[in-house]
Amino acid sequence: MATVDTLSLFTGLGLSEHKARETLKNTALSTQLREAATQAQQTLGSTIDKATGTLLYGLASRLKDPRRLSFLVSYIANKKIHTETQLSAALEYVRSHPLDPIDTVDFEQECGVGIVVTPEQIEEAVEAAINRHQSQLLVERYRFNMGLLMGEARAVLKWADGKMIKHEVDMQVLHLLGPKTETDLEKKPKVTKPRPEETDWRTAKDVVENGEAAGQTVSLMEQLRGEALKFHKPGENYKTPGYVTTPHTMDLLKQHLEITGGQVRTRFPPEPNGILHIGHAKAINFNFGYAKANNGICFLRFDDTNPEKEEAKFFTAICDMVAWLGYTPYKVTYASDYFDQLYAWAVELIHRGQAYVCHQRGEELKGHNPPPSPWRDRPIEESLLLFEAMRKGKFAEGEATLRMKLVMEDGKMDPVAYRVKYTPHHRTGDTWCIYPTYDYTHCLCDSIEHITHSLCTKEFQARRSSYFWLCNALDVYCPVQWEYGRLNLHYAVVSKRKILQLVATGAVRDWDDPRLFTLTALRRRGFPSEAINNFCARVGVTVAQTTMEPHLLEACVRDVLNDTAPRAMAVLESLQVIITNFPAAKSLDIQVPNFPADETKGFHQVPFGPIVFIERTDFKEEPEPGYKRLAWGQPVGLRHTGYVIELQHVVKGPSGSVESLEVTCRRADAGEKPKAFIHWVSQPLTCEIRLYERLFQHKNPEDPAEVPGGFLSDLNLESLQVVEAALVDCSVALAKPFDKFQFERLGYFSVDPDSRQGQLVFNRTVTLKEDPGKV
């Protein structure tokens, strides 16, 4: 009778009778669901609607900590959690906060409790997404990936109902395109893409630079063309809002056009004191991409004005990463190339009464309202003599600076132009003991190189006034500074100082540890450069700061690797299987397609012998309901072999653990089709495989409100799992560092540079796409 009551209770949640009966077979799930449903009924005092029932089932089937059941059921029953997105956030929150008590205010904030998303907001978000992709939509029509539109709307309205977003997308797309035509219903022809080794450097570079890489719907080049961004045309700087003109401006612009021929010129100006990270990838794509899209040129200029923090390895790594992303600078330059000119201009600035030597100490200048300099009005000749004394090393560090006479947009008064540093420079040696600051150097180097569009992130907006002021104070060509939003990722730290702390504490190995989001780390993990460029294109050229979820970047990685990473088979936790009636006297050679969906891309050969190894999880003596892999009375197929194996004997060790299996095999076409096909290896290589998870537990590890103990207290102690004796099929034996594979049913993997002859090391790049229907 109790079973009948529970069955009725489960069907009352909206489960089909079949689903309810299957649930009853799982004791742990049915017990948890019964408790959840009973509590919800007591709270509601009435029957449970289907939407609430669906959430309760999702809670019961996914909650790992039963202590939190009552807490979460109350939120669902009271409609405070009413969407799948909120439930996922709630489950993630209780997973990452195992200790009592739960901070309900923080919990509700993280789960979107009380946030109402109106139909008007959904309409606006969908309309904005469609506008961004309209040109491609009109070309591809209903073949366009509508999921991208829904994803972008969801990124803006995290707590919106997914069904409402989909409905709005369907309605607006129908309004834009009209009903489907016969052409829309035709099957999209398959495009065969060349394998990496079939693509020469020039072709690969063109694919990236022309923005036609896989996974992009609106190419980066389309987004960056001048008419799309509404930037000024070369020589028309004065038409830009906020641009400051002088009586000399038009003559200087005329000379500028004579030198450049009206060509667009941009620059990517990194400081060589750290490794580039994912945010720099957007900057690289924006600067190099804008020049390319508008038939211009882009400089790679190192802002090497801080010698004590600069190292040769950073110069090399930055050049490597720019090339890895597919870009070639028009010229590699250094701020130090212009030290003589910059010094001469500093002297001229003093002559013009626009700069002075100051003796205030650095600590006096900190804070929002530092006292004005008592030396601001000292005589020009005195400042000239003192500046020359600074140049000759007659002042200790911190005793004197050269300051410019202006008030910046953020209220900062008289920024420093030069300071004393007795540190040899990597290029100029001991020639200089005074070095220019960013505020002084940047705009003048842009002027020297006749940059047309000085593209920088939003935090430099406060320096725009000093940018224009300094060029105009010296009567030199003044470029236009344009700001765009930074690209950030959740669950990441990219600060150079904090990465150094992670390295120093042993939390990560170095700047290229695959758990970081530096570009060298992403390359080492196996992220293709094409995927990173696609990600930047999908993020778009936005003015607002953008903080993205890592899984959106991972989706771009999967899109590329699905088409480029050949398949292989690997076993992480092996179980030996002996085929007692193996059909041949010696091993068979099995032809395995590199890409099962497209066998025209070739095959590789693996041995199939009487001893094979399978994943230990692919066998269960006492399987739970719904288990489809190897068990007593339940045979499975071995992928690509054409054979099915059936269990005959389980060999156990002294402790009772399963040591091996004895099975028989038959041709797959000689009987009933098995419920599942599993991967396997025979005569395998022994390799090391490193499995990576998020380095941090919280979305914003640097936010003291979210992580009061600081980012080092938020480390995920399970972010790296090393499988030292994984088994991989012999087709990968000749793989080189950075070669990429899909290990069937496991994920995408890349060969790590730690690999040695006979001892390959693989990094898991990303897992396979989640498939709820796969058991």
From TrEMBL:
Task: Outline the extent of the Glutamyl/glutaminyl-tRNA synthetase class Ib catalytic domain.
Answer: 263-562
Q: What is its EC number?
A: 6.1.1.18
Q: Which GO terms describe its biological process?
A: glutaminyl-tRNA aminoacylation
Q: Can you say where in the cell this protein is located?
A: Cytoplasm, Cytosol
Q: Which domain of life is it from?
A: Eukaryota
Q: What are the GO cellular component annotations?
A: aminoacyl-tRNA synthetase multienzyme complex; cytosol
> Where does it primarily localize?
cytoplasm
Write out the entry's keywords from A to Z.
Answer: Acetylation, Aminoacyl-tRNA synthetase, ATP-binding, Cytoplasm, Ligase, Nucleotide-binding, Phosphoprotein, Protein biosynthesis
Q: Name one GO molecular function term.
A: glutamine-tRNA ligase activity
Query: Pfam families of this UniProt entry?
Result: tRNA-synt_1c (PF00749), tRNA-synt_1c_C (PF03950), tRNA-synt_1c_C2 (PF20974), tRNA_synt_1c_R1 (PF04558), tRNA_synt_1c_R2 (PF04557)
Query: Glutaminyl-tRNA synthetase class Ib non-specific RNA-binding domain spans which residues?
Result: 6-162, 165-254
Domain (tRNA synthetases class I (E and Q) anti-codon binding) ranges: 677-752
**What is the annotated quaternary arrangement, including any partners?**
Monomer. Part of a multisubunit complex that groups tRNA ligases for Arg (RARS1), Asp (DARS1), Gln (QARS1), Ile (IARS1), Leu (LARS1), Lys (KARS1), Met (MARS1) the bifunctional ligase for Glu and Pro (EPRS1) and the auxiliary subunits AIMP1/p43, AIMP2/p38 and EEF1E1/p18. Interacts with RARS1. Part of a complex composed of RARS1, QARS1 and AIMP1.
Protein function: Glutamine--tRNA ligase. Plays a critical role in brain development.
The family assignment reads: Belongs to the class-I aminoacyl-tRNA synthetase family.
Tell me which PANTHER family the record gives.
GLUTAMINE--TRNA LIGASE (PTHR43097:SF4), GLUTAMINE-TRNA LIGASE (PTHR43097)
| Name of the featured protein | Glutamine--tRNA ligase
Q: Which organism is it from?
A: Equus asinus
This protein's gene is called: QARS1
